NAD(P)/FAD-dependent oxidoreductase (Streptomyces mirabilis), 490 residues
Amino acid sequence: MNTSPEITPEAAARDTAEDTYDVIVLGAGPVGQNVADHARAAGLTVAVVERELVGGECSYWACVPSKALLRPVIAVSDARRVDGARQAVTGRLDTARVFARRDHYVTDWDDSGQANWVKSIGADLFRGQGRIDGPRRVTVTAADGGRRTLNARHAVAIATGSRPVLPDVPGIEEARPWTNREGTDSSQVPGRLAIVGGGGVGVEMATLWQGLGAQVTLLARRPLLPRMESFVGDVVTQGLTEAGADVRIGVSVTGLSRPDPAGPVTLSLDDGSRLEADEVMFATGRAPRTDDIGLETVGLAPGSWLDVDETCLVRGMEGTWLYALGDVNHRALLTHQGKYQARTAGDAIGARAKGLPLDNGPWGDHATTADQHAVPQVFFSDPEAAAVGLSAEQATGAGHRVSVVDVDFAQAQGANLYADGYRGQARMVVDLDREVLLGVTFVGPGVSELLHSATVAVAGEIPLKRLRHAVACFPTVSEVWLFMLKAYKG
C-alpha cells in the first residue's frame, strides 16, 4: 500500500531547466489521468501531481469498491427473482469473500499499477501536495518537507476531486461517523448501521450493508434520490423496505452521542425520537478539494467550486491557462462525466498550444455540451435507477413544451423473462417542438445496461420518427423502447 507522498527519484534528479512542462495536472484520479493522456497524445510534456493514491477517490473509496461490493448483493437478489434459481439460494453471502473481491478490485490499495501507467504515457509523476503559486506555477511539497517548483508553458489542470461534508451537528466528533471511505473500505459488518442522506451514496450504501447482513436504518429529509423523477425514489424505497431496511423520510439528526468509543452511537432526531446504532454514516453532500491548492495566489477563493466555460477553462482568469475538471467544477459529480470533460479539455489544451482553431460550438470536439444536455447517471440500488438528460420538471422549468410518456416494464415480455413479476417503470420526456428526447429515466432490475441506448438517443437528438426504426431484440428488457414509442404515438 503506497500512501506516502514523495517526489519520485526520477523527477528529483532533473535539473532546474527541466522543471518546466507544457501541462501540469493536479490530481491523478481518472479525471487527471485522462487530461494527461490527451495532452500527451497532442505531443505536450506533462507533469502529474498526486498527494495521495494514484487513481483517486473513484478507484479506492467510491465507484470501484462500492460496485465490487454491491455486485454480489444484487446478483443474489436477481437470482431470487427467478423461479428455479430462487431455490438455489440457501444461505447468506460469504462476507469474507465479498470483502476479498473488493480488495482485489482496489488492488489492496496499492497504486503502483496506476502510477506505472502514468509513467507509461510519458508523463512525470510527482508525489506530494501541489499548490498553485501564481500563474502557471505549482509547488510540490513532499511528505518529508522537500519542495519542488514546476512551471507550465500552457496549462495547469485542476482535477483534485471532492470530499465528504459532515454537517454541524452536536456530538458529531464524538460519534466518529463513517463517510463513503469507511463505507467502502470497512471489512466488518456492523450489527446496526444508521445512514443519513437519501442521495445516491446513501441509497447504494443502504443496499450494500443491508445485503451484507447489517440492520440498516436510512434517514432522509426528502424522498430518496430527489434529483431523479419522483417515482424512482418510491420504487427504490419499496425495494429497500422489502430487503429489511428501515427507511424514514422527512427526519433530520439533531444530535449525536457516543460516550464509550467502543460502544454504540445514539442519534437524536427532530421528531423527538432516538435511534441507537453500532455505526453511523453520513452521506449528506460533498465539497471541492480546492481549499489547500493555492487558489488565493491567482485571485480565487480557497475551497470554492470553480466556474468554467465549455472547454473547462476557469472563467475570470487572465490568459488561457487554468482548467478545472471533474468534481471541482460542480457540473456533475460523476467519474464518467469528469473523464469526458478531461478528454475534451485535453484536446482543447493541445489545440491552443499549437495555435489551432477551437471547435467549441455545441457538440464540437472542444465543447463539453453533454454537461448541459445529456449527463447519464446510474445508482446501483436494488432495483437499479438510471437516467439521462432532463427530468420532466427540469424540462418544463427550462421552457420546453413537453410530452411525458410513462410505461410499466411489465408490458415487455423480455422484462418478465428477465425476472418473474418484473417491477419497474420507464419514462421519456419528449420535446414536442422538435420531437426529440430531452430525457429518459428507468428504474428496475438491470436497467443500468439500458442507459447507454438512452444516452445515445438524447445526445444524438435522434428524431422519434427515426428512433422507431431502431428495432429492439425480442425478448429483451430493451423492448421497453417499443412500448414507450408506441405510447407516445398513441
